[in-house]
## 1
Amino acid sequence: MGSLLAEIEQSGVATWIREGGVLYGYPLILFLHTLGLGTLVGLSSAIDLRLLGVGQGIPLKSLEKTFVLMWAGFALNAATGSLLFVADARKHASNPAFYLKLLFVALAIVVLVLIRNRVFREQSTGKMLAAASLACWFIAMSSARLMAYISEFIS
Amino acid sequence: MSGAHLHLLLNHIPTVAFGVAVALFVAGLIKKSEDLTQAGFVAFFLNALLAIPAYVSGNAAEFILRDQPGMSASVVTAHQNAAMLGFIFMQLTGLVGWVALWRFRRWTIPVLLVLSIVTFAFMARAANIGGGIRHPEILAGDPTVSGAWPEPAAMGTALIVNYPWVWPICEIFHFVGLCMLFGVALLVNLRMLGFIEGVAFADLNWLLPWAVLGLVVNLITGMLFFLASPDQYTQNAAFGWKIGLIVVAGATLLYPIMSDEIRTLKQDARASLVARCVAAGSICLWIGVIFLGRFLPYIGSE
């Protein structure tokens, strides 16, 4: 496993991301990852707020179009996230905060799909789902942010 | 233009321009003119935004002047603490001004009256001490005597420097604020653009305070980052651009609550071309802020 990760890190694309230059490569991918985060988590939490009672007059049907953008944000972050992973494969693979982040991103996406299927299509209130969504995003984002500190701590 | 020039230019805003804002607001109250009072609310909010570059450019000026003969570091520190005190009250005034524009409540008037006068007094004191850095003869007492006045800038620096967990927590909340601000601003602007349809703006309007709250969270956490190592930021070109974009992008948070057209936009109505341009511009500006924030460590610093 360790040698496979090392091989990934030595691959052309991983080297390019790490050492490719200033304006493209690592910083650009990091920016796109943040843009995807802002779009996906931002819109998802705005919907959560609506489900929790802020702006109750907003018809849910009018928010359905935002799912296109949220999936686009998710696709962008899956792609950029994979690139950021291969650039430092061994470091991330040995970091428990990384797995915590993946787990809670996955849970948040499951909750988002449930919100779409149950609340938008079947008219249940979805307060619990909205609260779960906000909690999952917060934990995912916190563990992502703490990855750098934890990798320093364990190394 | 150096940081010292910039600070000389911008430092008149929290005093002179803010004085004009207070005058507009008070004149509106006396003349019972709603238009003048509203102009006062707008001016409070814009002054609060412009106070951000005014404050951070102070550290840029200090970076240039610190080694010059005759500079008293303790007067500079006293000025910085006085400025931070005024800055905090300036932000509170701007926040309440925004709320008063968003959904007018009676309580906002007395609160703004007190806050704006207190802010003006604190800013005048900061300006006076700041003037004393180069012209010690204008200082009546010794501003460097500590203990008499709160020292919020020094307290902020101590908080983030002395406790290692404060920085990571601020980072987490800087992202939380980013999501609140960007998500809600995106939603509101997408409605103005017509991408989202079938919702009256009056309903969507309830979400807007969450965007402003996100801005407040990021201003607090961002200011703590800045206080920890101001040179790292003032000597970074990307930081200056980021602050500039925040001022313009922040001002677009006024558009939907000030424009009668948007406030009364019906469920299936289309917004005007002007509104759509503002919305598109606002989205681009916030993306620009994120871009510069992300690139800050990689570009701009030598």
## 2
Amino acid sequence: MRYIFNFPDIGEGLDEGTIIEWYVSKGQEIKSGQAVVRMETDKVVAEIPSPKSGTVISIFGKVGETIHVGTPLIEIEIEGVYGEEAVAQAKAPVSMQPLEEGSTAVVGTMELAASSAFLPASEEGVATSKTDKQTTHKVLATPVARAMAKELQLDINKITGTGPGGRVTKSDIQNFQLQNVPAETLEIQPLAAEGEEITYEPLSQIRKTIAKNMINSKLSAAHMTVFEEVEISDLIWLREKYKKVFSDKNVKLTYLPFILKATVNALKQHRQLNSQMDLENNRMMYKNYYNIGIAVDTTEGLVVPVIKDADKLTIFQIAQKIAELAEKAKERKLTLAEIRDGTFTLTNYGSIGGIFGVPVINYPQAGILGIGRILKIPVVKDDQIIAGNVLPLSLTVDHRIVDGGEATRFLLQIMEYLKDPFSLMME
Amino acid sequence: MEYDLIIIGAGPAGYVAAIRAGQLGLKTAVVEKEYVGGMCLNWGCIPSKALLESAKIFDRTKQYAQFGIDGIDLQKLSFNWGQAKSRSTGITKRLTAGINYLFKKNGVELITGSAKLLSENFVLAGDKKISTANIIIATGSKPKAMDIQLEGAPVMEMEKLFTLETVPDNIVVTGNHVPAVEIAQFFKLIGKNVTLVANSNSFLMGLDDFLISYIIKKFKSEKIELLLNAFPEKFKNGELLVGDKKIKCELLVNCNSRKAVIPESEVPLELTERGFLKTTDDFETILKGVYAIGDVSGKSFVAHVASAQGIHVVNTIKGIKAKFNNRAYPVNMYTSPEIAQIGMTEKQLKEEGIEIKISEFPLSANGKAMIEGNTEGLVRLLSDKKYGQVLGAQIVAANATDMIAEAGAYIAIEGTVYDVAQTIHAHPTVSEIFMEAGFDAVDRAINK
């Protein structure tokens, strides 16, 4: 039987991607999980794995072409799956990765588009494969749906079918109409003429995703924020001392690697902050790995690459990794793996000049640490007023998971490490 | 949990759900008090249609001379109620044995006894307490009891009809729906005096007005007295008092509107205003993992929908999600000629503001119908004006209940009248009337 693998929602809320490279060719046997194509979206570069094993019969789209989520990528002939079993398989949700990997940088898990279409080996399908014409591929659609699409001048091949076997039905056409009409109106709206009070612009994919995730976080987690200031003259001294050593090796040493290291060390002693609540199964998920997301401000919008297993990295390696990921984020070259599965997030608005903030949790993580600009202000030391170097910190936690006392203890621990940076290396 | 699924009731909702569950590998048991196969197999669908078939043949035999068959003495022709009953019972036995076989084959356990719901996860089956992850209630329905003032009347429910030794001459049927019409016509076909008292203002609700008026006319021509919106008041001296009418009544068949048979339960179950189990679109009751399908949920009262609901619920339990489409199922009447309907009625379409085209083709112009001597009837297609989508179909024909499946397929695949017209139908067949009605909708019928 045949299986059409549609371009899945790769979890960034983006509904289109550009084909960079095909890894498979027609007639090739592939295994489930094998990478099929390399796609670039607004945010990431992702390798899309096949959910099924079989023989590739057709490939849709050329390198450089833009493909919408839910439209076909490849058609696979799967042997030994017929009839009811096929239908059951088609209907069963296909998860492409374990659920624990839920906490990606900006959105959730990667799922197959609901439209995965199984075709019985019908004459229609056979004809397509024998003539080897990819362009003549004909979607399954009901007669009324075809008549409607024709009248409304819609390309029925671009519409995702929800009927039996992925058939495009009347309601699919109606839904497609509903979803697309407003967008088109927006596109043809001229930009504001001089003197108009409001300029309308359509939302970008990345903006829509950010909006969705922010609201989801605010609605799902109980946000609570604590503020602290820490005197870090010793850290400044240490950083100055090693700046040169690092730059000789072509790595810029900022304060962030130290803060990240301090955070990871503190997370190890406060596991609530490195956890996730699994309400569905009435349990907590404490993570024994430390993947720290770093919010990066790009021209398109916020992206959060993740430093994996940060507890196993040295300050030098962390500095190197931060530079590499920030660069990739700005050039939109991050891969899915690089933005997925963070366990805690740092947001450094200090680099732009901010002092305090109330960061929004990168849900479903349990906390996010906001880092402000280092302030040169008077502090009291040994009853003397001296010029101090003060780093403002804002920690937001999910109050469902982390109590106030624990949040404060966690933050104080980070401060201890930053006050006495040598202690960071002692563990 | 001892079981993945316990099903209470082995009617067409419950037994189909059980077999499906067995096929999907769920550890399943069915608890049935008395009748495997439920009303459908024991006194509903199958046996009543078997009796109707006997009656139809009895009636048709009177026309045999026209077909060139001599030797039938109409004076001697009589209906053998005992033989008709035992033929019907034989069919029931074969089919219930079939269900028992399918239960075994699919690993479904049958527990004979009554069931009581103890909680979302416990059922008392007979005197055994069993635990289960899911429960399906498929306990069916019963006709509403006759009013108390009719005490002394010779009331009989369909369930007990098969215990009747002889059939008296003067019969009154009460009821408003398909079974009442069928049984009234059955008694008429075997030569009895029949009155149908439709004791509500919703005679044949859900059927297209066109078909209702056809049936009213048909009853008139067959001399079956039909009293609409009438209520029997009293039974006295062998007569039933309905309004100002006194009707001779030796048998009063109760085909009243149905009410749910709610199983005993220690946990409260929520009911609808009409007294059926309240369920979600996926047939889940207010209790998690407890479902209700078939008549007891009050969403439909036909076996084929009950079975479809059963399959839907088992799929849902197994995680196979789909939306249950309630609209396109056939409503069949095994009258003579048969009557069948699928999809939306003219009235429903008008209420939804859909502009429609009605195309018809009569059997009187169909060759095969003439050959068979069954020229009474027609097909009626209701299609939307814009795209020609077939939205409803009605058939009156000797085999309408089989023919309606074709219309069902058009509706299921959102077919249009163009598809109907372009589908080549063999000649001569009664089904050609579909193609003709299709032509009629697109332009004009060839043979009309």
